[in-house]
Amino acid sequence: MALMTGAQYIESLRKLNTRVYMFGKKIDNWVDDPIIRPSINCVAMTYDLAQDPQYEDLMTATSSLTGEKINRFTHLHQSTQDLIKKVKMQRLLGQKTGSCFQRCVGMDAFNAVYSTTYEIDEKYGTSYQKNFIDFLKMVQEKDLVVDGAMTDPKGDRGLAPHAQPDADMYMHIVERRPDGIVVRGAKAHQTGSINSHWHIIMPTISMKEADKDYAVSFACPTDAEGLYMVYGRQSCDTRKMEEHAGFDVGNPKFGGQEALVVFDNVFIPNEYIFMAGEYEFAGMMVERFAGYHRQSYGGCKVGVGDVVIGAAALAAEYNGCEKASHIKDKLIEMTHLNETLYSCGIACSAEGHQTKAGNYQIDLLLANVCKQNITRFPYEIVRLAEDIAGGLMVTMPSNVDFDSDLPVGKEGETIGEICNKFFKTKEDVPTRNRMKVLRLLENLCLGAAAVGYRTESMHGAGSPQAQRIMIQRQGNIQGKKQLAKDITGIED
Ligand code: SF4
Ligand code: FE
Question: How far is C-alpha 364 from the chain's CA centre?
Answer without folding.
Answer: 19
